[in-house]
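Make up an example, fold above all:
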Amino acid sequence: MCFTLSDRGCWSTWPAFASGQSVLQNHKPCYISKERKPSNKQALLTIPKPRYLEQLESYLRKELQALDLTTKNSQELKLQPYREIFEFFIDNFKTYKPLLSAIKNEYEVTLAHQKERIRALEPLEATVTTVSEEYTQQILALQENERDEISMLKQEKQHLLKFIENMKEEKSSLEIQVERLKKSLAEEYLRYLNEHHARKLLLADMNEMHNEQLGLTLHQVQDVKSEDVVKLTLALKIARQDLTKAQVELNRMIADYGDVVPRRDFESLEKKYSVLLQEMKNQHKDFDQLHKEYDMLLEIHRETAEERDKAFLELQEVRRSCTPRPNWAKCSEVIPGGADRWSSLAEGKTSDQLVDVLLEEIGTGVLKERDVFFGYGKGDDIPVYLRYEGEVKNKKLSKRDVVAILKDVWREKIALEQQMGKRSSLPEFFLCYLQKKYGDAAAMEWSYTIYENMRIYQSNHVMSSFYNILTGKVGEEQYHGQNQLISNLQKELAACDSSSTGSLTSEQFSMALREAFPLKRNDSIQDLVDAGRYKLDSAEDLINYRALFSEDEEGNAEPFVEILRNQYVNEKQEYLRELRSQLGDVIEVNADDLKTAFCAIDPDIDDQTLDIYIGLAYQVGKEQTDQDVLPVETALERLMAGDVRRVGPSPKEESKTECEEGD
């Protein structure tokens, strides 16, 4: 785009040239007469614009109209015509070209610097969005956790409302007492005032009687002794002067102390007044505090009501959108054992768990009807205990028989490892155990039968844990870790049972749980205590802790042990979630960074345990020996499969405890 000048070199200074001409005509640059001002303004308005200025303005209007100002960078496009106009000025003002060029360059540099800063700040927008989403999730989690606290606050609110009513009643009683004391004080004041007036009258009567007696005495003395009149007159004058002084002093004393009450009564009333004043101040202070708490509770109640209404609307929406709950009672018609057996199987289970129960029942029926299994082959990818080609006879074992065999396998394996001093592979030991007990020919029949039973009965802890370890889904360390956890708890409970009766009170049971599990939260301890008391009568307070660890013939443990195992898994998941959060958004991690993350979330972890966890994540000694980095998800999966537990208290829990103690 090119723009040419028709009058290059012929510049006018409009509108400045008009004022310049006016100054030259008057020959007074610093003065303009009042009579000439209107004519100068008129001349200024009649002078036309320079043609070059009109061309520049016309060119600018055309360029701005041709632009599309709806695009994202419309401001930069709009700036371009102005930049070209400024360049025309620079090219034509030869004298001012260096200065104008310097001004233009400074503006261009400043604009470029601002653009660079904007580009540098653009990634922060994405970071802010991500952080906002994370904190939104945390807020939702906190709201979920605060539901119990809200219910407790509601109860506390009711208690405080009752307390406020009692305080109001007590305040009314105190106000009545104050009114009575004021009335009593007014009566006392009136009584003392009457007594003061009576005292004045009494003194006046006494003075009058004294004067009369004195006059009578003087008269008698004059009559009896006939003393000198001059002497008596002088004595009388001196006596009257003394009387006047005494009367003045008496009047001064009456004026100064006539309204004064006895000091003992004054101190008693002052003490009562101080006590009542302090009580009134305390009542006002307590009332103000209760008023603030009441306002706060009202605000919490309002927020809770809003959340309740919102939750109710969400519940209504969920009820409208969710599918109807299945009628599980129909299953009793097809399950062996009828309604009684189905009721025992379905007691306390969710819909997802009931589906697993149905699958187990269906699988059990199919498994009993099968006479043979088909071998998986002899490939290297087939586990050693399933490497067989052809048909394998189904031994048709019961759940009780399979559980007994698996427990015996664990006993034999643990005894062998203690004797040899090293850990052996469970798949290989499982095959050797079956070959040693049933012979090489029948070992595969037993192996396939036990394997299929374990695959079906996933609700049985003995079978599911053995199956997960056998197939490599879970490390064997987790099995031994849970058993060690239960063993330590049994020892702690036995230590608290000094009389060896096998029973503990609820308080002793709770204290033993806290000694055995110092890192568990209060709600987790309470869940274990409730599970220990679930069979007790409400009047009893003794828990038979030995019965809590018993198992039936099929290996099913008591609810107490099931809750303990579930807490073990949940605590490990929470521990690894904190580890993942500490690692941040990284995709791969090396051993040093993983150690640093462990130390950050678990400051009390020792070096030996830390090395075990790092070796578990990187599988030191196996295929990951020389690998510098490892995907974070892979490391977390391996840690989840192993025995990973928190060693010391969480820094977050410690900070919360310190804040609560400070409050």
The beta strands are 372-374, 391-393, 503-505, 542-544, 588-590, 629-631.
